[in-house]
Amino acid sequence: MRMAWLATQEKPVEPKEETAYPLVDDLERFYGHLEQTLLSTGFIREGHPGQVMNKLRRMFTRARPESRGAEHSARDSGVD
Q1: Cα–Cα distance, 75 to 80 (Å, whole number)
Q2: Do 35 and 49 form a contact (C-beta atoms < 8 A)?
Q3: Residue 8 lies inside a defined structural domain of this protein
Q4: Degrees (nearest 5) of the Cα angle 67, 29, 18?
Q5: Which of 11, 34, 35, 66 is most exposed, with minimal Cβ within 10 Å?
Q6: Among positive and negative, which fits the CA dihedral 62, 66, 67, 72?
Q7: In terms of domain of life, where is this protein from (predicted)?
C-alpha cells in the first residue's frame, strides 16, 4: 500500500539544462584580457605576475564559468 501511495506522490523529474562551458581558446582570451587589465591597473607588475594569475586561473577553473561569460568579456573588451 505504501508503494502505491509513493508512486502517486512522485513528481516527474525535469531534465537539467546542459551548461555550455567555454572552449580553451575562449578561456585563454579571457585570461589574456584579465592579465592585461590587472597590469594596466597596477594590480600586478609587468614581468612579475607571480602567483596571482595562477591562483585566478585555478579559481575560475573551479567556478566553471559558462561560455557566454568568457565570450562576452573578451568581445566587450575588444580583444580578438
Answers
A1: 7
A2: yes
A3: no
A4: 10
A5: 11
A6: negative
A7: Bacteria
